[in-house]
Amino acid sequence: MATTDTAVSLSNVRKTYRVGEPVHALDGVSLEIPRGSYTAIMGPSGSGKSTLMNLVGCLDTPSEGDVFIDDRNVGSLSGRERTRLRGTQVGFVFQTFNLMPRLTALENVALPQLFQGADRVERRERARALLERVGLADREDHRPNELSGGQRQRVALARALVNDPAIVLADEPSGNLDTETEAEVLDLFGEFHEAGTTMVVVTHERHVAERAERIVHLLDGKIERIEELDGVTDELDSGANR
């Protein structure tokens, strides 16, 4: 079970998909993500990165094992309860931004607060404060098609943070950005992490992963190793996550 110092805890998690023969996307993964930490998830295609992201983000439930988000067992929740947990305790930043095209930047950032029951004035004040923090105070009335890729990703980051979630989960967040803009967005990730936000970045780019405190390497549905970026690496044998 997760503790007050743990944002996410996975215990002997397996996820099996059945398309003809069963496919073990995750095979006995155990992992704790400390509150306030910065973790990168890396691995080749088919290693289980997307499945792990979906479980941590309450988009799916494990076939076996337990996933705790902020002390709540995801597998024991109803679909409606998972939706509410996802809306209040998980912030998402996607490679393709996933902004609502007809809403302004301010409205996009304010939208997740509907899960919190905040009134319109509170939602707009909180959204406006976060847009200011990501350097977009002068773009609050612009719609996504009026913003650059980097600006859209900043809006997506502000939206992810608006409910003060237990964890912010970023899936290839710099994949559609040029080098300079990527660095600016990753700098923002670092700033919010230093302020206490729990960050998890799923990436195939080594230089993006190296912004984190540790890198969890996945291979064939298992944790191959956990690389602490202070130089200490936890090498796991083939049965370590079973």
UniProtKB/TrEMBL annotation:
Residues 8-240 form the ABC transporter domain. InterPro entries: AAA+_ATPase (IPR003593), ABC_transporter-like_ATP-bd (IPR003439), ABC_transporter-like_CS (IPR017871), ABC_transpr_LolD-like (IPR015854), MacB-like_ATP-bd (IPR017911), P-loop_NTPase (IPR027417). Keywords: ATP-binding, Nucleotide-binding, Transport. The keyword Transmembrane does not apply. GO terms for molecular function: ATP binding; ATP hydrolysis activity; transmembrane transporter activity. GO terms for cellular component: membrane protein complex; plasma membrane. Pfam families: ABC_tran. PANTHER family: ABC TRANSPORTER ABCH.1, IMPORT ATP-BINDING PROTEIN. This is ABC transporter. It comes from Natronococcus pandeyae.
